[in-house]
Amino acid sequence: MSFNLEGKVAVVTGGSSGIGLETVRLLLAEGVKVAWCGRDPERLAASQALMLNQFPAERCMAYQCDVLDNAAVVAFATAVEARFGGTDLLINNAGQGRVAHFAQTEDEQWLAETRLKTFSVIYPIKAFMDQLTRSACPSITNVNSLLALQPEPHMIATSAARAALLNLTHSLAHEFAAKGIRVNSILLGMVESAQWRRRFAERSDQQQSWEEWTAEIALRRGIPMGRLGKPEEPARALVFLASPLAGYTTGAALDVSGGFNKHL
Ligand code: NDP
């Protein structure tokens, strides 16, 4: 079975690291032309060098852009259209979480978290909408977290903002169905990536290895599969939902959490 994506154009925000980078890699392996963005020029250049080692330069486009800078996102969309002629798949992945309880969350941080989780999706959707409308198989796929359904007090602002994104994704799926644009999301549990590497560097027991530290987290948090996810696992879920293989699926939120979801 094929994803039927050869020759299509995909945009992946936050494609310079972790889940985004694995999504870029998988799409390129499927014959897709991929444009991806990130803010840090060095990380972006490193991701570009990695992809150019494996895939033809004419299908790779790394672009420096902060998804919270609307003018920059519009310029990104213009550049993608100039380079690839349009966009078929938009994958909104850029972002990060905030670890803090209510007492440690200042008003500005509430606003920043809400802005990140909503406008990191709203700006790219607005900027790429004309191109998606012209596509024969348009889709928008948002990276979200299980926190949207299962909030954690130590990530209170992120949990609330994730719930807003889930709600927004559902509304957009219904509104855009008439245009033929499918809108879905994935709900992540805990996935190995740069965010977890940073937390690992700050671990209390500096003698613990990465494997020991992540296995202990999985055990302590009650992840039934007993491990964190690998970045390529959500990447596969994203590519499936974004592809014509999921042609009759819109408004879905696919769980990629190793069974961490406690809901029916
Ligand atoms: P990484 O930190 O490895 O990757 C995040 C990517 O997003 C990087 O390329 C980063 O590059 C980019 N990015 C962040 N902010 C912006 C921005 N404002 N504009 C453009 N690019 C941006 O994290 P993950 O791969 O783990 O996370 C991917 C997504 O999954 C994120 O949205 C994260 O919140 C979400 N998630 C991850 C979980 C996990 O356990 N890993 C759990 C739940 C959700 P740069 O910093 O250079 O801009």
From TrEMBL:
Protein's UniProt name: Short chain dehydrogenase
Originating species: Aeromonas cavernicola
Lineage: Bacteria, Pseudomonadati, Pseudomonadota, Gammaproteobacteria, Aeromonadales
Pfam families: adh_short_C2
Protein family (similarity comment): Belongs to the short-chain dehydrogenases/reductases (SDR) family.
InterPro entries assigned: NAD(P)-bd_dom_sf (IPR036291), SDR (IPR050259), SDR_fam (IPR002347)
